[in-house]
Specification:
The protein is of the alpha/beta class. It is 41% helix and 14% strand. It has helices spanning 8-13, 16-25, 30-36, 41-49, 68-74, 81-85, 102-118, 148-152, 157-164, 173-184, 235-241, 245-248, 254-265, 275-288, 305-313, 327-341, and strands spanning 27-28, 57-58, 64-67, 123-128, 133-138, 168-170, 190-197, 206-213, 219-224, 269-272, 302-304. The chain has a 5-stranded mixed β-sheet with strand order 9-8-7-10-11, sandwiched between helices. A 3-stranded antiparallel β-sheet has the order 1-3-2. Helix 4 packs antiparallel against helix 9, helix 10 runs antiparallel to helix 15 and helix 15 packs parallel to helix 16. The chain is elongated and about 80 Å long.
């Protein structure tokens, strides 16, 4: 097959974002590059893993970039392009072993995993047959790390290319969560906050707030809050958290407590088990009073422990925290969860799930 030339017809067939990139500096992202070659991303990835197509760099967001001249050149390689372009997504790719036998890739992954373990790093790998993809995870050391760059330095050339091709993932959702939890547990990095409220709606108000330091568990703030004049706590809310109108009768209003909360948490990352809820209720109550919620308003200031837990367990299910349903009890329970997220989840341990290898 003759190499594709960068002519008017070719440029016109590229989606607008790709076309602009091709005209401006002749580099394309992976999705656009695959379309340029009229391939699925899967087959395009095998070209990269085989070393027939190398990226020329990355965008500021970290996306690989490919030169159009390299795409034109690889299009002239004597490969079965017809089979690749007509391959069904449900069937194995005709280029699956373009870079070499799948068993050889498995052996190389095993070697790297063993090297990490020999260096004292708790590492494990697992294989997805559906995606034809390996994921290599490792637990953070007591002092943090190793990072992706350090592990990449251990990889043989084929696995470096496999990372570029997304046939090998360094730190999947489990590993990412473990390293994130390690970072959140460092001194002054984060705190765990919880609020109890009169209900779940936009007109409901905060009746209790507590926060603990993620590093050592020390209590930063723990106080009841008066919900406001003529606002009572419904019986159904009391059944959940046990807070009654008489308990908050002499409590200070949110306008007085909020500045103390902001001072107590400082610049730490705000962790909550359901951060969308805690942020919405804290900010909503402040706005109802005409009070500045400060950095509680910033979405970037918050991280959700419930979502991280689901990543760690490999599920999309929203799991209950199982706390005591008082603000401090829930904050402490959420911090205990954070501590567990630094460790390997049960489903990755050898006793319950062995590392899987691809057939062949």
């Amino acid at each position: 097959m003759q190499p594709q030339q960068m002519n008017i017809q070719t440029v016109a067939s590229i989606p607008v974002p790709s076309r602009a990139r091709a005209e401006d500096d002749s580099v394309l992202g992976p999705e656009q590059a695959a379309r340029y070659l009229r391939l699925r991303r899967r087959e395009f990835a095998y070209l990269v893993e085989a070393g027939l197509l190398a990226p020329v760099g990355r965008s500021t967001a970290g996306t690989l970039r490919f030169a159009v001249s390299a795409l034109d050149a690889v299009a002239g390689e004597p490969l079965n392009w017809v089979a690749a372009r007509s391959a069904e997504a449900r069937r194995p790719s005709p280029w699956r072993e373009l870079a070499g036998a799948a068993s050889e890739r498995a052996r190389l992954v095993d070697n790297v995993t063993a090297a990490l373990r020999a260096a004292g790093v708790d590492a494990w790998a697992r294989y997805s047959a559906a995606a034809d993809r390996w994921t290599l995870d490792w637990a953070p050391a007591s002092g943090g790390g190793p990072g992706r760059e350090e592990v990449t330095a251990l990889l043989p050339p084929r696995l470096v290319r496999a990372v570029d091709a997304q046939r090998l993932v360094l730190l999947g959702p489990v590993g990412q969560t473990m390293h994130w939890a390690h970072d959140m547990l460092q001194p002054d990095a984060a705190c765990v906050l919880d609020v109890e409220t009169t209900g779940l709606g936009p007109a409901d108000r905060v009746v209790e707030v507590a926060a603990v330091d993620a590093h050592d568990g020390s209590v930063l703030i723990d106080t009841l809050v008066h919900p406001g004049p003529n606002i009572t706590i419904p019986a159904e809310a009391t059944r959940v958290h046990g807070i009654t109108d008489s308990m908050v009768a002499d409590a200070r209003p949110w306008s007085a407590v909020l500045p103390e909360v902001l001072a107590a948490v400082g610049g730490r990352t705000l962790l909550a088990y359901n951060s969308d809820f805690d942020r919405r209720m804290a900010v909503g109550h402040a706005r109802a009073l005409g009070v500045d919620p400060g950095r509680l308003h910033s979405v970037q200031a918050w991280q959700c422990l419930m979502k991280r837990r689901s990543m760690w367990l490999g599920t999309t299910t929203r799991l209950r925290l199982g706390g005591r349903h008082r603000a401090l009890g829930d904050a402490v329970a959420a911090r205990d969860l954070l501590l567990s997220l630094r460790e390997r989840p049960p489903h990755t341990l050898p006793a319950t799930q062995s590392d899987r290898k691809p057939p062949g």
